[in-house]
């Protein structure tokens, strides 16, 4: 237990109840502990391990790039093979006018960069976000997140940020000619994987166009195939002005990015120059892993399997203690009624060899966001454990 002891002694904690689980290795859909046991992973590093653990194509890409060079220059100065290839493939895989990508280090940094870009391009100051939204924990990302409990101890935050209600079309008139941008998670994550209803996204986009505000879609969680499309906005018949991504983009390495048109993105290159600058954004090692991830997602057929896997989850997760199941594709939130009960279920599942988690704001929801590579048999295996725990507790 020396590792666990040192973990709690020397590494900063984010909660007062961290598990301190000791990891030995991870492969495919499983994490192997130093206790000699294996654990089926229904969380995928909180939606980050798109292709499971230690996917051979990602590992190979990292090793190949490591043999060539690592960091050589701050972002945006040198032409390097893998960052350029990644940005080109993203442009080919996304609809117009998304055509150029700014690579950064995390989803939160991408959120901050996208807000700066929208304010710079429009010359406006007001930002509109959504109640119960979550966009990250940097000061900028926290400013546009819609849960006061997580924000109040860190004020003052960015000024001129207003919040409206997700899926409430009556509040769209609060978006005006003063609004630089509207920022929205295509599927609200921390709030319990809430999806857009009816034509909400179409009408939101229409309102932004009417008043000249930019629409920023945060696809940090649902992006990279998790809902059966490369990005979940593709289900809803719109295209954002700025697209933000992260998490599953790297297949297990830290990365983020924001995309836009060349016209909009060029705003960051002048007046002032270096409108956004990042030392390690576009790092070739990370870009190599991200390129391998994107290429596999696009070519493997995994996205075509998502609907079938979601259907199986929904068929199996039926129990008197399950109130409802939110979400789409392989990002599902299982409502167990109370935070205390859900945390206990997660603990008991871990004891039986299944990794599950909870939603940040709505702790009564059990998070299921497994790798896209999860098999049907593994879905059955994990759901059986959940049902056993529900029966026993």
Structural description of this entry:
With 393 residues, this protein is an alpha/beta fold. The protein is 33% helix and 17% strand. It is built from twelve helices and 15 strands. The protein has helices at residues 2-10, 44-47, 56-66, 81-93, 107-122, 139-143, 200-211, 262-265, 284-299, 306-316, 339-351, 376-392; strands at residues 23-27, 30-33, 38-41, 100-104, 126-130, 161-164, 179-185, 214-218, 242-245, 256-260, 324-328, 331-335, 354-355, 357-358, 365-368. It has a seven-stranded mixed β-sheet, with helices on both faces. β7 (179-185), α7 and β8 form a beta-alpha-beta unit.
Write a compact overview of the structure shown:
The chain has 393 residues and is of the alpha/beta class. It has helices at residues 2-10, 44-47, 56-66, 81-93, 107-122, 139-143, 200-211, 262-265, 284-299, 306-316, 339-351, 376-392; strands at residues 23-27, 30-33, 38-41, 100-104, 126-130, 161-164, 179-185, 214-218, 242-245, 256-260, 324-328, 331-335, 354-355, 357-358, 365-368.
Q: H/E order of the elements? A: HEEEHHHEHEHEEHEEEHHHEEHEEEH
What's the main sheet like? 7 strands, mixed
The amount of beta strand, in percent, is 15-25%
The tally of helices reads 12
Instruction: Record the strand order, biggest sheet.
Output: 4-10-9-8-7-5-6
Q: What oligomeric arrangement do these chains adopt? A: single chain
Total strand segments: 15
What is the radius of gyration computed over CA atoms, rounded to a whole number of angstroms? 21 Å
- What distance separates the N and C termini? 28 Å
**What is the residue-mean pLDDT, rounded to a whole number?**
97
Characterize the overall form. Answer: globular
Q: Which class of secondary structure composition applies to the elements?
A: alpha/beta
Determine the fraction of residues in helical runs and give it as a percent range.
25-40%
Q: Stretches where pLDDT falls below 50 for ≥5 residues?
A: none
